[in-house]
Design goal:
5% helix, 22-stranded antiparallel beta barrel, 950 residues, mainly beta, single chain, globular, 42% strand
C-alpha cells in the first residue's frame, strides 16, 4: 500500500511553521515524534500578494554517477508557478487570503533493460541456445520422468529436439506476447538473448494546490476564521511493454494515478477577560487517490481465457479487478530477478476514499505567577479502501510465476530459457490471487485526550512547566455496525465484530487510557546563561490501520509446491498441458484455484491454513515514550551556544512479528501456531505486538552567530545512537521472530547515524548601499543586495545486515544472516556505472571485501547480527543565491537560483549484502528519492526562480 498523499500549502502561503521536538508542554500530544504545525497567512487591511515561478530542466542538471559518460541527459522539465493575494473585504472586520500553485514535471523514464523471449522462443524453438556459462541448453518434457524431475527426456516436435509443437503452446502464452507489438519485438538483438530489450517512456506529474481563507473580527473580543484547501493532480508512469504491461518504467504505479484532496478548517478565539481566553478549532480532510491501469475489460478471462482470474468468484466485484494478470518469468533460479508481463504491481489498481476529523477546545487563564491552560481533543479517521494485497506476489487479477522447474532435469540448475519454456507451455510453479469480500474495506477509529498545564514563574530566574495529559484510543471498527476482523491465536478463529454473538469491539481490552505526566524547568543562572531540563511521557499513537487486509477482508490464495524436490507445476494456464505430467501420473488444476469467500454470518470464521492475516494481542497493552533532556544555553562574545543531552526511551513499541515463527529446520509445520493448534499454517500470520523497548541517546550542540548586514551563521552537531528491535512495523518485521532468538534482533536502528553535522548560513554580500565596500557606482549596482545561503551536510553511513538465503534455514518467518569468516574490510571501491561489470575478484569496485563472509550451514543461523555493519557516509551541499530589487515602495522583485547537490557528490546507498547473491559487496544505487520521480544520486540540479511581491 502506498503512503497516503498529503496536502502541502504553497510556500508563499505559509506564515509560520512550528516543528516541536522533545517538547514537554502538556498541550502537545497524539504524536509520537515531531509535531509540525503549518499556519496559512491571513489577509490584512492592505492588499498584499506575490507571484512566483521556479524552473529546472535537464540542462541545469549534472549527469548522475550511474549514467554513462558522454550520454545525453534525459528530459526532465519541471515548473512550479503561482501566486497569493490577500486584503480586506471590509476594513477592520473581514479579510481574505488566497493562493494557487501549479507544479508540473515531464521526464524521460528509463531506459530500463530487460530480458524478453525472442519470437523463436515464443514459437517453441529453443535450438542452439547456451546458458550464461556457455553450456548448451536443453528443454525437458514435463510429461516425461517423475515428480522429482528425474528421468526426463528432451522435448521434441516431429523428432526435432528442443522444439515445442504448436499444439502444446498454451493459448494464453501465445496471445499475451502478441500485445508487445513490433516496436518491442525489434529490440531483440543480443548474442545470448539476455538483456535484449531496452524500454522507455515519458512520465508526467501535475498538481494544483489552492487555499482560500477568511478571517472575521466579530467584536473586539471575538475572532473567527474559515479555510478551504485543495490539492488535485495526477501521476502517469508508462508501462515498459506498452499494451503488454510489464513494470512501471519510472518505478511507480502503472498508468494514471489521480488524486484529489480537500481540507476545511474552522476556528474561533474569544477573550472573556484580559486574562481568560478560549480558542476552538475544527478540521476536516477528504482524500481520494487511485491508480487506474488497464481497467477496460477482464483480459485474463476474456482475452487470455485463464479461469479464476479477474473478478471470477469475487463477491461485490467491479471493474477494479479488470486488466491483465501478472506473469513473472524468472531470469535467475531464485526468482530475485524476473521478466514481468501483464500488471505485476501488487498494489495496482487501488481506490482510497479517506476522511479525517480533528477538533479541540482550549481555555487559558493567567493568574498572578501562573499561566493555566487546559483543553480537550478529538480525532476521528475513516478509511475506505480497495486494494487487495497479499505481499509481493498476489494481485487482484491473479499472478503466475515460472521458474523453469517444469522443463528442467533433476540435479540441474534451471536457466532463463527453462523459465521461458515453462511460460510457453503455460505451466507455472506458483499462482496466487488477492480479493476483497468487502468493497470498500472500511476502518474507523477515534482518539480522545484532555490536558492540564501550569506555567509557573516561581522567581524571576526560575520557571516551571507542569502538565498532565490523558489519552484514550478505543478499539477500531468498520462501517454498518461491524467491527474489525481479529484473529485469536489461542483457537485459530477470526472474530468479526457485530456479527452473531461477537461484540463490535471483538472483546479487545485496550485499557482505560493513559495518564502522561510532563515537567519542564528553565533557570537563568545569569544574564548570558540559561539551563533547561524536561521530562515528558507520550503515548504510542499507533492506530488500527493494520487491520485493513486482515482475513477475511482480503482473501489471499497462494498455490506453491511445499516440497522443494517436487518438479510438478501447480497449474496449467488454460489446461493445454495440465494432464499426463511426471510420466503420465499427475494432473494439475486449470487456471487459478482461489479460496472461496467464507460464511461470516456467525461472526466466527476458522482461519484457513493457507490464508494470511494480521492481528493484535488481547489485551492490547499500548506502549509509551519517555523523553528527557538537559540543555545549557550560553552567549559567548556574540556566539550563541546551546548544548546538552537529549534522549528517548520507548517502552513496548509496536513491532510486526510472525506469530507462527518456528525454529530452524522445521518450516511452517514447526511454527508456534502450527504446533499449538495442530495444523500446518502456511500463510503469513503477522502480529502487531507491543514489544520490549527502544532507546535514543544523543549529545546535541548548536552554535550560531549573527553578523552585520542581517547575516547569520550556524553549526549543528548531533552525536547519537538509536537501538531497537525493528525499524518500522508497517514496512518491516522482526528478522528473528522465534522467542529463543529475539535478542538477535536488537541492534542499531536502520536510520541510525552516529555523527550528523549541519552548517548553514544566510550571508549578505558586503557590497552596496549601507555595506562596507562599493557603496555606490556600477559596482554597487551589480554586486549590492545579493544574499547567499549555503547548507552543508555530513552524516555517517547507515547500518545494514549481511544476509544469506533463508530457504536452507527453513525457520518460518525468519531471515538469515551470513557467517563472518574473516575480518570485515571496507575497500570503499568505486561503484561501476550503469552497464559496467565488476568481477568478484576485483576489489577495486567493492565497498567491502566479500571474502569475509560465507553461507551458513543448512538449518543453522549465521553468526552475524542485524545491522552489524555500516555503509558509506553522506555529504551534500546546497546553495541559494538571491537578490531583491525595489521597483516602487510597495513592489519588490526577487531573482534567485537554488542549487541542490552543488558539489555533485553521489549519495550512495548501502552495498548489495546477500552473500552469494548478485553484486555481493558492491554499491549499485543511490540513497534516497528526490523530486517527484526517481532516485536522488546527489547530482547537481539548479532551479531558477523569480518572485514579485507587493
Amino acid at each position: 500500500m502506498p503512503a497516503n498523499v498529503a496536502y502541502v500549502p504553497p510556500a508563499d502561503a505559509i506564515s509560520e511553521v512550528n516543528v516541536v521536538t522533545n517538547s514537554f508542554d502538556a498541550e502537545q500530544g497524539m504524536a509520537g515524534g515531531a509535531a509540525v504545525n503549518v499556519q496559512i497567512k491571513s489577509g490584512t487591511n492592505q492588499f498584499h500578494g506575490t507571484a512566483s515561478w521556479f524552473h529546472t530542466d535537464q540542462n541545469f542538471a549534472a549527469l548522475n554517477y550511474f549514467q554513462k559518460a558522454n550520454t545525453p541527459k534525459n528530459r526532465n522539465n519541471q515548473n512550479s508557478f503561482g501566486g497569493t493575494i490577500g486584503g480586506p473585504i471590509k476594513k477592520n472586520k473581514l479579510f481574505f487570503f488566497g493562493d494557487w500553485e501549479r507544479t508540473t514535471q515531464r521526464n524521460f523514464a528509463g531506459p530500463d533493460v530487460r530480458s524478453l523471449p525472442t519470437a523463436a522462443m515464443l514459437a517453441g524453438d529453443f535450438r542452439g541456445l547456451t546458458d550464461s556459462n556457455g553450456n548448451p541448453v536443453t528443454i525437458y518434457d514435463p510429461m516425461s520422468g517423475n515428480a522429482q524431475g528425474g528421468g526426463k527426456v528432451p522435448i521434441s516436435c516431429n523428432g526435432v529436439i528442443n522444439v515445442i509443437c504448436p499444439n502444446r503452446i498454451d493459448p494464453a502464452s501465445n496471445t499475451l506476447p502478441g500485445l508487445l507489438g513490433p516496436s518491442v519485438a525489434q529490440e531483440f538483438s543480443t548474442a545470448n538473448n539476455l538483456n535484449n530489450f531496452q524500454g522507455s517512456g515519458t512520465a508526467a506529474f501535475t498538481r494544483d494546490n489552492a487555499d482560500i481563507k477568511v478571517n472575521y473580527t466579530a467584536t473586539n473580543s471575538t475572532n473567527v476564521f474559515a479555510r478551504y484547501s485543495l490539492s488535485k493532480g495526477t501521476v502517469f508512469d508508462p508501462p515498459l511493454l506498452g499494451q503488454a504491461g510489464g513494470d512501471a518504467t519510472n518505478g511507480g504505479q502503472l498508468g494514471n494515478a489521480p488524486f484529489f484532496i480537500q481540507s476545511v478548517g474552522l476556528g474561533l478565539t474569544h477573550t472573556f477577560t484580559p486574562n481568560l481566553l478560549l480558542d476552538w478549532n475544527f478540521g476536516f480532510t477528504r482524500q481520494n487517490i487511485a491508480a487506474e491501469y488497464g481497467l477496460g475489460s477482464p483480459q485474463g478471462l476474456d482475452q487470455l481465457g485463464i479461469p479464476g482470474t479477474n473478478d471470477a468468484g469475487v463477491p461485490n466485484a467491479g471493474n477494479l479487478y479488470n486488466g491483465l494478470p501478472a506473469f513473472q518469468i524468472c531470469v535467475v533460479t531464485t526468482c530475485s530477478s524476473t521478466t514481468n508481463l501483464g500488471n505485476p504491481n501488487t498494489g495496482n489498481p487501488f481506490q482510497f476514499r479517506d476522511q479525517q476529523f480533528v477538533s479541540g477546545a482550549n481555555l487559558s487563564w493567567t493568574h498572578g505567577k501562573h499561566n493555566f491552560r487546559g483543553g480537550i481533543e478529538w480525532n476521528h479517521s475513516q478509511l475506505n479502501h480497495f486494494q487487495p494485497q497479499g505481499g509481493s506476489f498476489q494481485t487482484a487479477r491473479g499472478s503466475f510465476q515460472f521458474n523453469g522447474d517444469a522443463t528442467s532435469l533433476q540435479g540441474t540448475t534451471p536457466s532463463w530459457f527453462n523459465s521461458v519454456a515453462d511460460f510457453v507451455l503455460g505451466l507455472p510453479t506458483q499462482t496466487g490471487k488477492a480479493y476483497q469480500i468487502f468493497n470498500p474495506i472500511a476502518l474507523r477509529w477515534s482518539q480522545w485526550a484532555w490536558y492540564l498545564r501550569d506555567q509557573w514563574q516561581v522567581t524571576q530566574k526560575l520557571t516551571l512547566n507542569l502538565g498532565l495529559r490523558w489519552e484514550y484510543y478505543p478499539f477500531g471498527y468498520s462501517d454498518n455496525g461491524l467491527g474489525l476482523r481479529w484473529f485469536n491465536p489461542a483457537d485459530g478463529n477470526v472474530y468479526i465484530g457485530g456479527l452473531g454473538n461477537v461484540p463490535q469491539n471483538d472483546g479487545i481490552d485496550v485499557g482505560h487510557g493513559q495518564f502522561l505526566p510532563r515537567v519542564g524547568v528553565a533557570y537563568r543562572v545569569h544574564e548570558n546563561t540559561v539551563i533547561r531540563a524536561g521530562y515528558g511521557m507520550s503515548a504510542d499513537p499507533n492506530n488500527w490501520r493494520y487491520f485493513r487486509n486482515a482475513y477475511p477482508s482480503a482473501v489471499i490464495s497462494d498455490n506453491v509446491n511445499s516440497n522443494s524436490s517436487n518438479y510438478i507445476p501447480v497449474a496449467s494456464l488454460t489446461g493445454t498441458n495440465g494432464t499426463g505430467l511426471g510420466g503420465g501420473s499427475y494432473s494439475v488444476p486449470t487456471g487459478l484455484v482461489n479460496l472461496a469467500p467464507p460464511n461470516i454470518s456467525t461472526g466466527i470464521v476458522p482461519l484457513p491454513t493457507s490464508a494470511s492475516t494480521t492481528t493484535v494481542p488481547n489485551p492490547f497493552n499500548r506502549g509509551y515514550i519517555n523523553s528527557f533532556n538537559f540543555m545549557i544555553e550560553q552567549e559567548i562574545a556574540g556566539f550563541y551556544l546551546t548544548t546538552g543531552y537529549v534522549g528517548n526511551y520507548e517502552v513496548r513499541p509496536l513491532v510486526n512479528m510472525n506469530l507462527n515463527a518456528g525454529p530452524p529446520g522445521t518450516g511452517t509445520a514447526g511454527g508456534l501456531l502450527s504446533q499449538s493448534l495442530g495444523q500446518n499454517y502456511k500463510g503469513t500470520i503477522n502480529g502487531l505486538v507491543p514489544f520490549k523497548n527502544n532507546s535514543y541517546n544523543s549529545w546535541q550542540t548548536k552554535l550560531t552567530r549573527h553578523l552585520p548586514g542581517n547575516s547569520t551563521f550556524g553549526l549543528v552537531y548531533t552525536w547519537s545512537k538509536t537501538l531497537d528491535y525493528e525499524d518500522n512495523e508497517e514496512l518491516n518485521s522482526l528478522m528473528f521472530p522465534y522467542p529463543t532468538y529475539w535478542s538477535k534482533n536488537y541492534g542499531p536502528a536502520g536510520f541510525d547515524r552516529t555523527h550528523n553535522i549541519q552548517i548553514y548560513g544566510v550571508l549578505s554580500l558586503p557590497f552596496g548601499k549601507g555595506e562596507p565596500w562599493l557603496t555606490s557606482g556600477i559596482g554597487s549596482r551589480i554586486l549590492g543586495g545579493w544574499q547567499v545561503s549555503p547548507i552543508v551536510s555530513y552524516m555517517t553511513g547507515l547500518p545494514f545486515s549481511v544476509t544469506a538465503a533463508a530457504g536452507p534455514l527453513n525457520a518460518n518467518g525468519s531471515q538469515q544472516t551470513a557467517n563472518q569468516v574473516g575480518p570485515y574490510q571496507i575497500i570503499n571501491g568505486a561503484p561501476v556505472s550503469t552497464g559496467g561489470t565488476c568481477a568478484n575478484s576485483n576489489l577495486g569496485c567493492h565497498y567491502f571485501n566479500p571474502a569475509a563472509f560465507a553461507v551458513p550451514a543448512v538449518g543453522v543461523y549465521g553468526d552475524t547480527s542485524r545491522d552489524e555493519f555500516r555503509g558509506p557516509g553522506y555529504f551534500n551541499m546546497n546553495l541559494s543565491v538571491a537578490r531583491e530589487f525595489s521597483i516602487t515602495e510597495r513592489f519588490k522583485f526577487q531573482l534567485r537560483a537554488d542549487a541542490t547537490g552543488l558539489t555533485n557528490t553521489p549519495h550512495f546507498a548501502n552495498p548489495q549484502a546477500q552473500v552469494g547473491g548478485a553484486n555481493f559487496g558492491i554499491i549499485t544505487g543511490t540513497l534516497q528519492p528526490g523530486g517527484f520521480f526517481g532516485p536522488d544520486p546527489g547530482s547537481r540540479v539548479i532551479w531558477l526562480g523569480a518572485r514579485l511581491q507587493f
